[in-house]
Amino acid sequence: MTGSTPAPVAPATARGTRPPMPNAGRAWTVLGLGVAAQTAGTLFVSTPAFLIPLLHAERGMSLAEAGVLAAAPTLGMVLTLIAWGWLADRVGERIVIAGGLALTALAAAGAIAADGLIPSLGYGPLGILLLLGGAASASTNSASGRIVVGWFPKDRRGLAMGIRQMSQPLGVTAAAVTVPSVAAASGISAALLISLVATGVLAVACTIGLRNPPRTVAPTPVPTETTPNPVAARPRNPYRGDGFLWRIHAVSILLVVPQFTLTTFALVWLVTDQGWNALAAGVLVGVAQFVGAIGRIGVGVLSDRVGSRVRPLRWVAVSAVVVMLLLAGVGLLQWPVAVAVALVVASAVTVADNGLAFTSVAEMAGPAWAGRALGAQNTGQFIAASVVGPAVGALIGLVGYPLAFLAVAVLPALAIPIIPSEVAEHDHL
Asked: Ranges for the Major facilitator superfamily (MFS) profile domain (predicted)?
């Protein structure tokens, strides 16, 4: 099969109106399955981060050591994102997503078995199984974004990609409200069982209900006097000629550090530094992630309305600097209400850039390169994210949470001048 071709954008029939979307029912059904699939994968990847309080307080691991274990699934994703994107370009999204989730379920089952070996073999086998599960779950990241490009026209992709990008905070929310209490009551194996059930069920559901986007097979060019070389008809490499995609990748790497800092350490910050109990802290983190999920939709709709992905991306980068500084300040004051409000706002802001950057990458890469470009986009982000656990954990151990949050605020500040201009964006469209 060939790569998916985005649905054409039909002209508006009247000022301020949009024509009906072809295959709308199928498109929204497939999007829903894609969201659920990536949510299940994110639940698995996020679970170790919410085991940190147990590992740190009850089992004596340092924050840096627990951060390494929490980063294992993310590191696994880094190793396979581009490969999954390449496979999606070749064979389609349905096989990639369903197969990847099935492999993630197998890894979760293996991790449950490895938990029983901790007294004799330590945490090494568990870390390896978490890494393999993360590698398998990366299939949903690369392929589900491709579904949006294939099924939705350009003037609805911001909304659709915003909904698709809800997957990550929804997965984190599910982990936040279930894993800490389940792990505290029944141990690591019980917490991992949640991921096993979720990924197994979604693997079956995607096998049955997922459909690849409409595909257009381009005819093989016949050599003539004017087009003597069929290779010339191949889609151009979007990474050659200018640095637009490279700049978006770099911006996303910088902006993902505040996001994963909060995802990884918000719960343990509330429990060990702010004096919250684990249940209340988990509920707050879950609420914060859910608000972030809704915010991604709002930012996606905004990008559709202003006709640009990079303009709202710049607004988000500026806001990320502000909210990390705010979080550092309220952490020093230790006012519970202020801490709760600041964490919800910061969590919402720091996840808002993902959908914008993801949509921009998919549009600029084109249908023939979308899978690989989205894989590269996520690879850069997750390389940075895999460093967050041990690096920020060590930094917190040295200087404490407020100064660590201040240091993290520097990265979105560095991202602001790298964001491409709207003129460069429209030159590509």
From this structure: 27-427
